Amino acid sequence: MPRDPAPIEITLPPWVAEVVDWKRRYPSDEERMRLAIDLSRENVLRETGGPFGAAIFVEQTGELVGVGMNSVQRLTNATLHAEMVAFMVAQHRLGTFTLGAEGLPDHTLVTSCDPCAMCLGAVLWSGVRRVLCGASRDDATRLGFDEGPVFPESYRYLEDRGITILRGVVRVEARTVLELYRERGGSIYNG
């Protein structure tokens, strides 16, 4: 039976307050990726979601403006992938629907795994100017996840729109979280 159409609430897991230091700067790509990987690992270890984490930074300063972790099962919403949650948090914190708004600095999305079709599409509308990816799409599909219709042309389209994409950043470390999820018996909720 359907639930009453009450307000929809999207929350971060309580452990985020323990793991995330909002005042810290992350100057390098590797440091930024390690935060996304830490978020994915904590999500698995604390059993609050799938093995994916993401963060959004001001490109020039390394200021953290958004974090996300897969919350699909915890919040019963198929759209709450790590990247989508990170976009929501960053846009809410900055009070804008686009991170590319006039007067804002350039922003970078850092995600522990290549984005699925939905999240890759959202990159275009999010306003970020740069994307860093950890584990590969193949790493996720080997685990059993269905990443949807993502093609080389998908990445070229974003690059043609001025969005820089760098894949395989700290890939081995990011892939270990996917393996940890499998070892712990994590469910494949979209395979």
What keyword list fits this structure?
five-stranded mixed sheet; 191 residues; 38% helix; alpha/beta; 7 helices; single chain; Cytidine Deaminase, domain 2; 5 strands; 15% strand
Question: What is this entry, summarized?
Answer:
The protein is built from 7 helices and 5 strands. With 191 residues, it is an alpha/beta fold.
| Tally of individual domains | 1
- Please trace the helix and strand order, writing H or E for each element: HHEEHEHEHHEH
Structural class: alpha/beta
Distance between the termini: 25 Å
At CATH level 2, the architecture is: 3-Layer(aba) Sandwich
> What is the β-strand count?
5
CATH class: Alpha Beta
Main sheet record: 5 strands, mixed
Percent of residues in beta strands?
Answer: 5-15%
Shape: globular
pLDDT averaged over residues: 96
Low-pLDDT runs of 5+ residues are none
Question: How would you explain this protein's 3D organization?
Answer:
There is one protein chain. With 191 residues, the chain is an alpha/beta fold. The chain has one domain: Cytidine Deaminase, domain 2 (3-Layer(aba) Sandwich). Helices cover 38% and strands 15% of the residues. The chain has helices at residues 16-19, 29-45, 82-94, 117-126, 137-143, 152-160, 171-183; strands spanning 53-58, 64-69, 107-113, 130-135, 164-166. It has a five-stranded mixed sheet, sandwiched between helices.
